Amino acid sequence: MPAGPKKDENELRINGAITVPQVRLVGDNIPEPGIYPIAKARALADQLELDLVEISAKADPPVCKILDYQKYLYQQRKKAKEMKANAAKIVIKEIRFGPNTDEHDFQFKLKHAREFLQEGSKVKASIFFRGRSIQFAEQGEKQLLRFAVELEEYGRAENMPVLEGKRMTMMLAPLKKK
Length: 178
Description:
Layout: E1 22-26, E2 34-37, H1 38-47, E3 51-56, E4 63-67, H2 69-86, E5 92-97, H3 103-118, E6 122-128, H4 137-150, E7 155-157, E8 162-164, E9 167-174
Parallel strand pairs: 1-4, 5-6
Antiparallel strand pairs: 1-2, 3-4, 6-9, 7-9, 8-9
């Protein structure tokens, strides 16, 4: 059964869509904030050549403001876009090695992981088992745990090493900066 167009919860009622007998008017451009009959509120909005916008429908009586609705929508979209731009973006960097990685390579990868954690990225440490090297799963787990211990002052392990098929992974999150 197709439903009709969904009404957005954030969509505000304006002008003629407001059907209550009286409203509470607030804002800068009205002579005296207070409770007005809907007809007088609409007349005030027409006089100022602006829109009557219902800000809070759940209040008793509903709260309305007289403002330029298109300008208000533009500002809301602009604010939402800024919020999205300022939201923290989590970057995950992956470091891969084998169960028999020698000490020099291990230290090299450790150095990179340290840099990633310092810049605020999460690190996903993965050990790949090829062919029969899956027999060294315990060795791989020890290596991941050592990796986490070496990076304790830069990040913390979010989980213990997990074996998924031929790959063992562990996530490290950067420590919060004080």
